[in-house]
Write a structure and sequence with these properties.
heterodimer; A: mainly alpha; 8 helices; 72% helix; B: mainly alpha
């Protein structure tokens, strides 16, 4: 399903850069110019520029922009503190908060005509998920040493041949479910919006889906972050 | 954030991924079984590792459901 209009792709095409017509192109430049890449960069630039503009000079009495960020970051930090504890929050707050902001903004810009959600491509969500998945194993090994492997061995030594494959499969299932849930929800929203826009755009048919889209975007970002926090907490604690 | 919406987020996070996790576990188990059958053992063991993998995948799916329930009880 091609998007009706993607303005960054149009600008790049006018500049003479190759735009792939499938989901991903063949050459390196084509792959770099794929819509989900360009919109990923757009989201990154957006977050960096807005952060710089509103937080350029910090003040004791916060203005409008600083107030917004203080509420957002403060709320997120409280949430992480409740779930992960002080030590992990201090270590991992920048990473998880970046993911939260990036996923939320990336989901929401797909609702504006002419934009596309970078998270509606499996490449983006799988990349985020692989980072989370590898990080939660690193946290486990750093917190517990080789005793972390006891997480995968089940409660009793006799049950090891049965429990080891089950635990491994359910651990790999995290990789799949975390990435495909975000990808599937956002891709469904984008495709539905595209089809409704094409069928009955003149009668505002996409509007109800857009309202649902706002909800889905925020909920999916929250679920991703919450599950990240849960995985980190689980791998940090001792095996019983 | 009010108490109500915080509760709501927790419930969504804990229960919202049940379906996907269950299905993903079964798919990974069966995919591993098919891989063992077709690539590692060159079709000599054909139906067996697929079935074993499927069984382990279903078991892993139920185990992850159990984990979700335990996680919710702890909170």
């Amino acid at each position: 399903m091609e998007h009706p209009i993607l303005f960054i792709s149009i600008i790049l095409e006018k500049l003479g850069l190759p735009i792939p017509h499938g989901p991903v192109g063949n050459g390196l430049v084509e792959q770099l110019c794929a819509p989900y890449m360009t919109y990923t960069w757009f989201t990154m630039i957006f977050l960096a520029v807005v952060g710089k503009m509103t937080l350029g000079n910090l003040e004791m009495v916060p203005g409008k922009g600083q107030n917004f960020w203080e509420i957002l970051i403060g709320g997120m930090e409280n949430f992480f503190l409740e779930n992960m504890g002080r030590e992990l929050t201090d270590k991992l707050f920048p990473m998880i908060a970046t993911f939260a902001l990036y996923i939320a903004v990336g989901n929401l810009i797909g609702l504006i005509p002419g934009f596309m959600s970078p998270t509606s491509s499996i490449n983006t969500t799988l990349a985020l998920t692989i980072i989370v998945w590898i990080t939660h194993h690193i946290i486990g090994f750093r917190a517990n040493g080789f005793a972390y492997l006891k997480h995968f061995l089940g409660p009793m030594p006799i049950l090891i041949p049965l429990m080891l494959p089950i635990e491994l499969i359910s651990n790999f299932a995290r990789l799949l479910s975390l990435s495909i849930r975000l990808f599937g929800n956002i891709m469904a929203k984008e495709t539905l919006l595209g089809i409704l826009f094409m069928l009955a755009g003149a009668f505002f048919a996409p509007l109800p889906i857009m309202i649902l889209g706002v909800l889905v975007s925020l909920v999916q970002a929250m679920v991703f972050v919450l599950l990240t926090v849960v995985y980190f907490t689980q791998s940090n604690e001792h095996a019983h | 954030m009010s108490k109500m919406s915080k509760e709501m987020i927790h419930l969504l996070g804990n229960y919202g991924h049940i379906g996907f996790t269950f299905v993903a576990a079964i798919f990974i188990g069966m995919g591993g079984g098919i891989y063992l059958d077709q690539k590692v053992f060159d079709d000599r063991t054909t139906p067996w590792f697929t079935f074993i993998g499927l069984a382990f995948g279903i078991a892993a799916g139920f185990k992850s459901l159990f984990d979700i329930l335990k996680q919710q009880e702890k909170d």
